[in-house]
Amino acid sequence: MALNWAMVDADGSKPVPLPEEKIWHTVIKCQMSLDFKDKKAKWEAKGTAFVTNQRVVFLRQPMLPAPAENDRASEHLRSLNVPLSNLVDCRYMIPVFAAPYYEAGVLPVPGGNLPNEGPGVNKGILKIWFLEGGGNSFRDAVEEVRNLAKGGQHGEQLRELGEARWVECMHPHTPRSSIPTLHAQPPTKLARPQAA
């Protein structure tokens, strides 16, 4: 997980994909907070949340200008980049009198501009509020991609589905029969050890 390390396109509206990365889902008009209570560190911003086949990315919108000194880490959140494997204890909450939100524990990595050293540093708490809807589909996209990534055998199909979802969003008149679907493999039976 890294703070302000996501590369963005020229207009700052979406992340530059990593090798073999596809954007799976996008939700605009979100509010995010990242809190490391044990280190008294907290960041907040409004922007856009992305789910890819490798990570969750949050980009502040509108983007802030670059810091005057490039060698110094910014204290303001511009972007947050969390590998899917670093999201733990995820849940989606729908309060009665507030916007729904996605909450997850996030595990920091060394060199990611976040507290990750010293005694007592466990994880930060990430919350993303969906101010104009899209929370259910965000949660579903994260879970779907994480489940497929855990299986390992569907890596190629995951990339194809990412492309298909892009085609479906950008070209809604494409016949659904031409969009690939994921076919689950039947479970294999494991041989039980026999008692001696």
UniProtKB/TrEMBL annotation:
InterPro entries: WBP2-like. One of its GO terms (molecular function) is chromatin DNA binding. It comes from the Eukaryota. One of its GO terms (cellular component) is nucleus. Residues 172-196 are annotated as: Disordered. This is GRAM domain-containing protein.
